Amino acid sequence: MFKQGKAPPREISIDKAGDFLERVAQSFFTVDGHSSRKLMPYPHDPFKRPALCMKYSHLSVKDRLDNLHEFSDWEKNFFESNTNTFGSALGKDTAFTGALRWYALGGNSMAGLFEMAVFYKIENGCMTSFARAILGDYKGDMLFGAPIKDVTQNKLGVRVTTKSGQDIKARYVVSTIPFINCLGDVKFDNPVSPIRQSAIRKGHINKGAKIHFRLKATEPGYGHLGDKENHRQIIDHFRKDIHPSAAVEAYVTHDWTNDPYTKGGADWEVGWRGFVDGAIEQGHQAPQSVVAALKLELRPKLIQMDTWLWGSQ
Ligand SMILES: Cc1cc2nc3c(=O)[nH]c(=O)nc-3n(C[C@H](O)[C@H](O)[C@H](O)COP(=O)(O)OP(=O)(O)OC[C@H]3O[C@@H](n4cnc5c(N)ncnc54)[C@H](O)[C@@H]3O)c2cc1C
Fold it and tell me: How remote is the C-alpha of 185 from its chain's centroid?
């Protein structure tokens, strides 16, 4: 189902939609004769030289679509409605390079991207069962309901202070506080770089939410559904914009945009940024860099110990 502007929803088969998307994507992601593979050969390391994509970093998705003349407005709008789901934002506010990163991660095809990003769900409870499995594996200390207020550091280590005034000290700290939207709420005595500070001031464009509907019959569909707490409006919008005859039995959502500890999200990863996979990727890398730093600190002591042992013989 695709709805363009005020026009009534139009049904389009999955196969036809797939063909349209691939055709537009092929042209959209090929700029000045450079294919997407050439523009961003390493989406997990997008700045790796020559990083041809950076030449087009000023373009929005909308700018790029406006430069394509071989497609109808309907085809371009249909394509944009799909890229809008990448950052929960319109094409005019979505970076061309951001869309390109998703496409490259999906193996340079829209079908590949959707197969990786959308089709599969974790069975038996989705993210809740996944979070419970992580908690089940975890053996360390845990502290809940303790928002962090300040992070200070010196040569001896890091001190983290909670809003209630509790101090926690450690040699190293790994921060997972959502980068652009929430990091500005925590005071760091050793602040992030000026370019990151300017990103924090601007905030992330993603103000999206996900609403899961339980229908009598299974239907595909995405949409912008307004005030998340207005039940009547949400169900009316669903009927009007997505499926007029669907019997909505229930819906569940969370207002991530107004959640003070998410504010719509904005994560740290390089590759699958905006995905749980990316959080896992980063969660794997951050402790490794702490281990590497600790090893570096230990090395001189080992050398000293060595010298001492040799000296004593
Ligand atoms: C509407 C929506 C839909 C999404 N859909 C998908 C999807 O279908 N598939 C997918 O893979 N990804 C999806 N994502 C993205 C996914 O949720 C994130 O990529 C992932 O949660 C990032 O993990 P994280 O650990 O980096 O950050 P988060 O999960 O945001 O965790 C950060 C933690 O820091 C805590 N925190 C923040 N500030 C403080 C503070 N001051 N003190 C203490 N703690 C603090 C927060 O409470 C939170 O627990 C979606 C995101 C949104 C918003």
Answer: 20
Domain ranges for the chain:
15-117, 138-205, 211-253, 277-313
Residue 303 pLDDT > 80, yes or no? no
Secondary element (H or E) of residue 279: helix 276-312
Fold of 138-205: FAD/NAD(P)-binding domain (3.50.50)
Architecture of the domain made up of 15-117? Alpha-Beta Complex (3.90)
ipTM value for the complex:
0.96
Question: Which atom of ligand 1 lies at the shortest distance from residue 182's CA?
Answer: 38
* Mean per-residue pLDDT over the chain, rounded: 87
Average pLDDT, stretch 161-178? 95
**For 17-27, what is each residue's pLDDT tens digit?**
999 999 999 99
Q: What is the DSSP annotation of 144-213?
A: -S--EEEEEEETTEEEEEETT--EEEES-----S-HHHHGGGSEESSPPPHHHHHHHHH--S-----EEE
Residues with CB under 6 A from ligand 1: 147-148, 176-178, 182, 185-186, 208-210, 256, 261-262, 264-265, 267, 274-279
